[in-house]
Amino acid sequence: xxxxxxxxxxxxxxxxxxxxxxxxxxxxxxxxxxxxxxxxxxxxxxxxxxxxxxxxxxxxxxxxxxxxxxxxxxxxxxxxxxxxxxxxxxxxxxxxxxxxxxxxxxxxxxxxxxxxxxxxxxxxxxxxxxxxxxxxxxxxxxxxxxxxxxxxxxx
Amino acid sequence: xxxxxxxxxxxxxxxxxxxxxxxxxxxxxxxxxxxxxxxxxxxxxxxxxxxxxxxxxxxxxxxxxxxxxxxxxxxxxxxxxxxxxxxxxxxxxxxxxxxxxxxxxxxxxxxxxxxxxxxxxxxxxxxxxxxxxxxxxxxxxxxxxxxxxxxxxxxxxxxxxxxxxxxxx
Lengths: 155, 169
Hints:
The structure holds two protein chains of two kinds. Chain A is of the alpha+beta class. Chain A has two domains: about 1-30; about 35-155, no CATH class. Chain A has two helices and nine strands; from the N terminus they run H-E-E-H-E-E-E-E-E-E-E. Chain A has a five-stranded antiparallel beta sheet, with helices on one face. A four-stranded antiparallel beta sheet of chain A has the order 4-5-6-7, with no helix packed on it. Chain B is mainly α. Chain B has six helices and three strands; from the N terminus they run H-H-H-H-H-E-E-E-H. The longest helix of chain B is centred in the middle third of the chain and has 26 residues, at about 90-115. The chains are: A alpha+beta, B mainly alpha. At the A-B interface, helix 1, strand 5, strand 6, strand 7 and strand 8 of A face helix 5, strand 1 and strand 3 of B.
């Protein structure tokens, strides 16, 4: 009799714990997702163009770019922006005078990234971006160079 | 007269002495007045008590009575066998079966009532829509966790020619 009572109490506590966990998962407010957006310029030259104070790209970003099928050997950081986006919100990130990135956070690590150039939507991409991963948007630029917009998730 | 001599007289009176010792005791009583007085007193005492002794009749034989006592002692000294314990798996199963059922119910509930996000769908979905760039392609490096979306924008057109890195700068 006592053993049966003990088992019943144990199952009861387990059910309560599960309920609390489930409730927490459903109702817990999502924390800010920290991201960094980089505008990069790619070239085979070892130096940035005259008159530009472009910095060499961050080491971890450069390492990941090396693994991509890109022909350019050097990447310079034109500018970067820190972004914090909460679930359900959209953060507009100006990349340049003519280009903007809209970052919308979905559930968990899911993001929707929209690249807008000259006021027109160029590309919209929705994907999961776990911590440490990168989304790279890029294209050719004049004089056999390239541009990249790199979105890196920090936390 | 010491204690041993008194006991000897008592044994003589009860007829418990061997024949030789009984003869010696009789001679001792005949010549010793104190011993004769003690023997007489013991005899009177025995006769006085004889009327009060009632025989007790056991309902069973002596051997059977003591064998019952012995069996009872042995029964009490033997430890009671412990109830057989249920195997660990059985005990765990009794707990885990209802617990698993509850966990499944909660998991199903959470999945059903989970609110749809602003993007719709669930985490991990990957949908790409290139609106103005049909020439875009995607490359995914799973080991590095990097996704590359290569665009034809901005094309090597007149807008791009005017600037070093196209229309982005």
